[in-house]
Amino acid sequence: MHLLSAIERYIRQSGITASRFGRDVLGDPGFVHALRRGREPREATVLRVSAYLAVARATEERGR
């Protein structure tokens, strides 16, 4: 799945703002906005965000 799509889905489901997501995951409140404008993240950033999303999904599934 495309990184931005996964982030957008997480943001919708969790109810947090794009700025909060970027701040929490990378310390960059403008990260999601930059992706929306076409920024291509480095591989290390993709891995970091993907890992965060995987943990968030696992945590959510355990809570069900």
Written account of the structure:
The model has no long low-confidence stretch (mean pLDDT 95). The protein is globular. It has helices spanning 3-14, 18-26, 31-36, 43-63. 11% of the residues are buried. With 64 residues, the protein is mostly helical. It contains 4 helices and no strands. The longest helix has 21 residues, at 43-63.
Q: Give the biggest sheet.
A: none
Strand content: under 5%
The number of domains: 1
Separation of the first and last Cα atoms: 24 Å
**Beta-strand segment tally:** 0
Task: Please give the radius of gyration in angstroms.
Answer: 11 Å
The number of helical runs is 4
Describe the oligomeric state of these chains in a short phrase: single chain
Question: Could you say which overall geometry the principal axes of the C-alpha atoms support?
Answer: globular
H/E series: HHHH
Low-confidence stretches: none
- Overall structural class, as computed from helix and strand content, comes to mainly alpha
Mean of pLDDT: 95
Helix content: over 70%
Task: Provide key terms for this protein.
64 residues; globular
Question: Short summary of the structure?
Answer:
By secondary structure, the chain is mainly α.
Q: Topology, pairings included?
A:
Elements (H helix, E strand, L loop, with lengths): L2 H12 L3 H9 L4 H6 L6 H21 L1
